[in-house]
Write a structure and sequence with these properties.
Elements lengths: L2 H10 L3 H13 L6 E5 L4 H12 L3 E5 L8 H7 L5 E3 L7 H13 L4 E4 L3 H8 L10 E4 L2 H12 L7 E3 L4 H24 L7 E5 L3 H12 L3 E5 L3 H9 L3 E2 L2 H7 L2 E4 L9 H4 L6 E5 L9 H7 L2 E5 L2 E6 L2 E6 L5 H4 L8 H21 L7 E3 L2 H15 L8 H7 L7
Parallel strand pairs: 1-2, 1-4, 2-3, 4-5, 5-6, 6-15, 7-8, 7-10, 8-9, 10-11, 11-14
Antiparallel strand pairs: 12-13, 13-14
Cofactor: NAD(+)
GO molecular function: adenosylhomocysteinase activity
Protein name: Adenosylhomocysteinase
């Protein structure tokens, strides 16, 4: 087998939940006659999702959602899967990136699956003639959900979208364990530096930030959390981390990871006070959290080693990983989230795509939660694959939990 096929085969053996869903899809063909347009990180775990959808009868057209996260050998292997066409390539230009988005849309998809909302944004701005053919979509990540909710609030979202990111099975496992492990391991393997004893700065204490803080602390780092939400800041404090502003953290931090999904988190005023050798990386979706525009405009940079660009600021070296893009995927050795974690997230995507195909025509343009039944089904399938049994409510307990007239 070629390298891309080997990667897919390796991932497949650790994705039992998608494996069970695929068996049903092969028998029922729920996507027969439909075209699914996807913009996701094109790597081995994603390929297993694509295979699952194609096995369910879909024609699948996919491109990347980040110019540096595609694994070209996997993209090549996907083009050998019946019913699949992949347009993604690594290190593409902005023009090539959006050309590939347009090629996916050119097939007039009936369902979209996004990671960052680029397909949906393109449909609502440049390709509006295709909107009538869209039944609905799914969105994978926090940044995309933020953008979609903003569209919906303005009445601009013209078809229903399932917020796959905003459900317990995604947040508790993908965001916490997935981001925590994969971002940290990518920083370690890219820089070959020690975590223990370092001041490790996590910008944002959402689910991704919590996972990173926990993992870094477990390796002996002194973890600093920066936040804008007083409740999350207090939670970080009670969890045992140092909480301060980024201006304060910039002076003492050794390693920085942004997880906010917002822009301009680390900027010129922070660069100027950082230690010599500070390492900056991003685990949010887009490369806007670190002000790379200022660095490139004002400081000459050079490639210190694979996926590390070094800038000299006030005589000190500031090291930026993966061009400020997703550090767990965009470094040359970044492998993304652990396979078992993505098995759960992509199981949600597969089942939510089936749901939106069945129910989307009756839903208005808005952002919808993952149906609770789907979330529970994915958890149950995972427990079954692990051989774990859990209790169930008795008739008496169920009556008690659903009654209002039983007193003390």
């Amino acid at each position: 087998m070629k390298s891309g096929e080997l990667k897919m085969s390796w991932a497949r053996q650790y994705m039992p939940v998608l494996g069970e869903i695929r068996k049903r899809f092969e028998a029922e063909k729920p996507f027969k006659g439909n075209r699914i347009g996807m913009a996701l990180h094109v790597e081995a775990k994603t390929a297993v999702l694509v295979e699952t959808l194609a096995a369910g009868g879909a024609e699948v057209y996919i491109t990347g959602c980040n110019p540096l996260s595609t694994q070209d050998d996997v993209a090549e292997a996907l083009n050998d899967v019946p019913g699949v066409k992949c347009y993604a390539k690594r290190a593409c230009s902005v023009e090539e990136y959006y050309d590939a988005i347009d090629k996916v849309l050119d097939v007039r998809p009936t369902v979209t699956i996004d990671d960052g909302m680029d397909l949906i944004h393109r449909l609502h701005t440049e390709r509006r003639e295709l909107l009538d053919g869209i039944i609905g979509g799914c969105e994978e990540t926090t940044t995309g959900i933020h953008r979609l909710r903003a569209m919906a609030a303005e009445g601009k979202l013209e078809f229903p979208v399932i917020a796959v990111n905003d459900t317990p099975m995604k947040r508790f496992f993908d965001n916490v364990h997935g981001t925590g492990e994969s971002a940290l391991s990518s920083v370690m393997i890219t820089t070959n530096t020690l975590i223990g004893g370092k001041w490790f700065v996590v910008a944002g204490y959402g689910y991704c930030g919590r996972g990173l803080a926990k993992m870094a602390h477990g390796l002996g780092a002194k973890v600093i959390v920066t936040e804008i939400d007083p409740r999350r800041a207090l939670e970080a404090h009670m969890d045992g981390y140092f909480v301060m502003t980024m201006e304060e953290a910039a002076k003492i931090g050794d390693i920085f990871v942004t997880t906010t999904g917002n822009t301009s988190i680390i900027t010129e005023k922070h660069f100027r006070v950082m230690k010599d050798g500070a390492i900056l990386s991003n685990a949010g979706h887009f490369n806007v959290e670190i002000d790379l525009e200022w660095l490139h405009a004002n400081k000459e940079g050079y490639e210190a080693r694979d996926s590390i660009e070094t800038f000299i600021v006030n005589g000190k070296k500031i090291n930026v990983l993966a061009e400020g893009r997703l550090v767990n995927l965009a470094t040359t050795k970044g492998m993304g989230h652990p396979i078992e974690v993505m098995d759960l997230s992509f199981a949600l995507q597969a089942l939510c795509s089936e749901y939106i195909l069945k129910e989307g025509a009756g839903l208005k343009g808005d952002v919808y939660d993952v149906p609770n039944g789907i979330d529970v089904e994915v958890a149950s399938l995972k427990l079954g694959s692990l051989g774990i049994n859990i209790d169930a409510l008795t008739e008496e307990q169920n009556l008690y939990m659903n009654s209002w007239d039983i007193g003390t």
